[in-house]
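W.,

You were right to be curious about this one. When I first looked at the sequence I had no strong expectations either way, so I just let the prediction run and decided to look at it fresh. Below is the sequence, 486 residues in total, followed by the output.
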Amino acid sequence: MGDVHTRKVLDLTIRLAEVMLSSGSGTADVVATAQDVAQAYRLTDCVVDIFVTTVIVSALPTADSPPVTIVRAVHNRSTDYTRLGELDRLVQRITSGGVTVDQAHEAMDELTERPHPYPRWLATAGWAGFALGIAMLLGGGWLTCLLAAATSAVIDQVGRRLNRIGTPFFFQHVTGAAIATSVAVAAYLYADLGPTALVATGIVMLLSGLTLVGAMQDAVTGYMLTSIARLGEAVLLTSGIVVGIIAGLQIAEIAGISISLHVDATESFIAPSGALPISLAVFGAALAGACLTVASYAPLRAIATAGLAAGLAEAVLVALSKAGFGQIFASGVAAVGVGLVATLISIRRQAPALVTATAGIMPMLPGLAVFRAVFSFAVDGDVDNGLRQMMSAIAIALALGSGVVLGEFLGSPLRYRAGRIGDFLRKEGPPGLRRAVGRVVRLRPAESHPTTGVPRTRSVALEPAPTDGPDDESGDAPDSDEAEKQ
């Protein structure tokens, strides 16, 4: 292929991997998408590997040339789902054929240098709306909801300024949790409001749902070391939340403020009763999911679908809880539904699956259980109940992460060759950003393409992998030397 072309393709794949990884995509997704792009440019021996935050792409040596390897560390995090959506469309164009490497680099330059689509104040308003929805979901009154929204806006602005001066994320979470707890204590003291909903809302805002989903997907797709590293990061950041809550409660205790929780501390989830409370909880979840996409700079068309996924997930959670199922099982089933809906939406190309999946599970993250566990440790001195609540929170979080991945696995056959249902849902063409579950695409034989007058730097199209059996629409068995994507 030539060293210049090889280096251009490798540089393109590592830039693509950097954007995906910084946005929270799973390791298997990044590897599969990068290899799709490399194969589209006929670099069939490209090796892509990721270890935590280090991306390695390499072209294997040949008889005439040494290996070419590029390594890049990804430290910056920039959750911009509009950028991720544009990258999704760029990958679709590349894997459809006809985009040169130079054109792809120009598109990547424009994509990475483009500012956020919304002003920063609108993202802060999105976090405020997210907190408002979570407070409604937890059954807070109107004053509690307004305080939760205002507190989340303050936490976002403070976190932004701390991030600007390079403060580690651990201390940002400590500060955010301390602010939420301090506001809850003041509301309890001066307005006689229960602190549970206020603190739990702040916890859900700070919990690393994106890291959790990525960690679970890495685990089930075989990237165990990266999964452990992501889980360790999630645990560390959650520990920062715990430290911030304890600090706020201890300051209140030193000031002589005695707080009592008038709830059953043995329960981590109490399903709402009655048509109005249930409707408010479902609406709150939908509002939280939609506002989270605004806070994450998602495309406008993704807002409604993300809100719908979050609302449906909460409705399933409440229904299963009313039927007598525990929160862990109910959360897992609801997360499976979120993963399936996210896959269907990505097939219709409304938004990448990661956007819908993250927005769908965030309202179900166990902020209430985390707060009750910390309260049992720091105030009540009930270690047994604190450990029980914390283990429940961990189990719920793992159920959510694994459930999303299972839902995507169940929905993956609809991407290609799934009969009339798949034909109805699917738009023509190859996938963009991959959710690496199951066989998806393979490289089409080069001789099947007219190559006269077409520069070799253009990409070749990727097509659906053929199915085995008499119903194979292509009618031809794949050649043994074709590079199939698993």
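Here's what jumped out at me. The mean pLDDT is 77. And, maybe more interesting for your project: The longest helix spans residues 224-254.

Coffee later to discuss?

I.
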